[in-house]
Structure formats: C-alpha cells, structure tokens
Amino acid sequence: MRIDLHTHSTASDGTDTPTELVRNAAACGLDVVALTDHDTVGGHAEARAALPAGLTLVTGAELSCRLDGVGLHMLAYLFDPEEPELARERELVRDDRVPRAQGMVAKLRELGVPITWEQVARIAGSGAVGRPHVASALVELGVVASVSDAFTPQWLGNDGRAYVEKHELDPFDAIRLVKAAGGVTVFAHPMAVKRGVCVPESAIAELATAGLDGIEVDHMDHDEPTRARLRALAGDLGLLTTGSSDYHGSRKTCRLGDHTTDPEIYGEIVRRATGAFPVPGAGG
C-alpha cells in the first residue's frame, strides 16, 4: 500500500481542488490519501463525492499551534468535524487569517513591494488565505523566485520582516480537543529548521506525555540525519512515525506520494480513531 497522510487543496492553500487532488492521488498510484487543509474541513465533502474507486480518503486537518512563541503544526486525523469545541477553535483560527494576511501585505508595502490585497485575495480564491498565497504574490511580482524563497527572515518566515502572528492553538489544547473529538494527532514536520525556529525535543516529550500519537518523520524538509534523529526520539517516547508529501499542488515542488507512511502505522492510526472512519472510494 502507498499511503500519503498530508496534502492540501484549494480549501486552504493548495492549487488542486479536492476533486483534482483525489483524482491525481489515484493516478499516481496511491492507495490512501489524507486531506489535511489548514484549520478547515471545507474540502472533505467534495473529496468524498469525487473519490475514485480503489482510493481511500482519510479526513483530517492541519491545525495552527504556537508554543512558547514558536509556531508549529498539528495534523489531526479522523476526528468528528461536528464536535463543537474543536470546531469553534478552527473557526477562530480561520477568522484571523484575513486580517493577518492583510497585515503582511501592509508590511510588504512598507518595505517597497508593490503587492495589493486584491492580488492576494485573487490567488487565494475561496480557500482559507495564508502565507503561501502572499508568497505566491511575491513570486508573481518577481520579488522571489519561488514560494519557498519567500519563507525566510527577509520576507515571510517566522519573525521575518513581513511576518504577522495569528490566533493559534496551544498544542496541548489541540491534542486534548482532537482526542475529545475522537481523532489522532501527529506533529507535522517537527524539525523543519529551514522554516524557522523549531520546538526543542523536550517539548516533543511533553506533548507525548500529554497524548500526542506521532510525529511526521519522512518529509521534504527533513534531511536523512534529521529523520534518523526523529526515529530514535519516537522510539524513546513511544510515538508513531509517519511519512507524507505535504503536497500543495503547483505551489510547492513536492509531488503526491513523495514520502509515504508504513501500512502498519496507518492501521494503528485507524485503530485509535473513534471520531470518523476512512472513506473507501466508490468511483466518484
């Protein structure tokens, strides 16, 4: 089985619609794909309706969190999307995305970049606006060569010149809320140092004690020594280890299935979940 547990659609900051994403996942030979848009489940219904035969959909979200001033992302799988407390927190994060992006546009204009909010809104479309949309505008303007090049201290990286904070969950609260909604939590790209400052291993240990289920190990932003370090840490803490593409369509260079999760690990995630179940494709 080929299992990719971290992808994004136009419901947040990907460039594939949910329909395109599941069809592309089937076309590239995946057996299981998780749709984990940022702080939203808005793409799930469309993905279910379009799900090709032979492909299983795992519903999820990537939750924006912050711990001691450091941003981090928590992948949440197979939770009940109607659970009110978790739904309320997702809404608070989403509601803060527009003023945050507008704040980044204002900072960029102060730095002499001829970006406009209308340009960013056009790029975001109906998706939950975020930094990748602002980064795409910088690419359009020729300020940077790629979206990744915008995520630096010079521009939109954590604490960068044009960075603006948004409402984010405490990761301990995120774990509690996801568990209460019957879901499973995996710390996304925990040592992606090129994105900015990462939380220390001691914090990962504290999250594990609080009920964190796993950490994402095989990811484009982790080199081989980092992956080995994370596997050893997961072994010490009793955490599951996953691999994923973090696919965003044409907005990033990674492809669906570039990194995958072991079927036994996937089976354990499904076993632990009680809020929702994987959706088998019926040829939508």
Write the layout of secondary structure elements.
Blueprint: E1 3-7, H1 18-27, E2 32-35, H2 44-50, E3 56-67, E4 70-77, H3 84-95, H4 97-110, H5 117-124, H6 131-140, H7 147-150, H8 171-180, E5 184-187, H9 201-209, E6 214-218, H10 224-237, E7 240-243, H11 263-272, E8 279-280
Parallel strand pairs: 1-2, 2-3, 5-6, 6-7
Antiparallel strand pairs: 3-4, 3-8, 4-5
Task: Tell me about this structure.
The protein is of the alpha/beta class and about 280 residues long. Helix content is about 40%, strand content about 15%. It has 11 helices and 8 strands. Strands 1, 2, 3, 4, 5, 6, 7 and 8 form an 8-stranded mixed beta sheet that branches. Helix 10 links the parallel strand 6 and strand 7. Helix 1 (about 20-25) crosses helix 2 and helix 5 crosses helix 6. The protein is globular and about 50 Å long.
